[in-house]
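Annotated sample (chain length 301).
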Amino acid sequence: MKSLVLPSLNALTIYRSNFHKDQSTRFSGRAGYLDSSKPSSLKLTPSHTTQPFNVSSIRMQAGDEDFELKQMRDMAAAKKRWDALIRDGKVKLLTPREAGYAIQLSNKTLLDVRPSSERKKAWVKGSTWIPIFDVDDKFDAGTLSRKVTNLVMGGWWSGMPSLSYDRQFLSKVEEKLPKDTDLIVACQKGLRSLAACEQLYNAGYRNLFWVQGGLEAAEEEDLVTEGPQPLKFAGIGGVSEFLGWTDQQRLQAAREGWGYRLLFSARLVGVILAADALFIGAQQVYSTETRDLLRIPIFGS
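Output written by the structure step:
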């Protein structure tokens, strides 16, 4: 079986918005698929210099650019494969509403491949949950650095935890679901479920359906759901969710009116007041310590 290279989680996140913008035209059969040719690897030759720091900086910059180019190539190659799966009819498209009809009327199985951080907030009733990426709970040197990087690169704002690929994903699916099962594969936004569809097809599953736009695109009446939150809110978190600054919450505020907005306005005011209190407290501590230092007598002057 041909081995596949999954794009990194960062590449999936960065590419997701652009992917959803043009997926409707790509899947309609128009020309313009990404070129399969691979750009040559970046090679930088620093000029002769007597400053070793400059040389190492150039090498670090070249390494970063090589890594970004590799991410772009992996994502472009994956996008081409996913387009081909849908264009050739190997994976069929369903809207969230069509998926709901198929589950209720045809007893098709919905395979939820979202991580546990999203699944515990909301899920489709009767769905089978097998995440392709899940929250990384390990605490070794390698995972700790990834957690810190994820937090610094926006995890604090979006609430997205550090995730890792489950290498047992296929074996878990095969254990629960025969290969002749009609599988509706879904995630929160649609990209990870496409990656799952590719792996499932290559493993021998032939009755695959992909929920376009993910569960986040579903309206309340499309699917029978369970959990403490609506499906649309399962993929948000962090400071942005607390302050109500996500697209999903803005849409909800537009529907529910001022009462919903006032809640998050009060939270924002609370955060500002707390920050002011901390700043004033820090100033007072600094002033007190400064006065104490000035009072210390200087001997031998």
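Annotation: Residues 258-295 form the longest helix (38 residues).
Annotation: Strands lie at 91-94, 109-112, 123-124, 128-129, 133-135, 163-165, 183-186, 208-211, 225-226.
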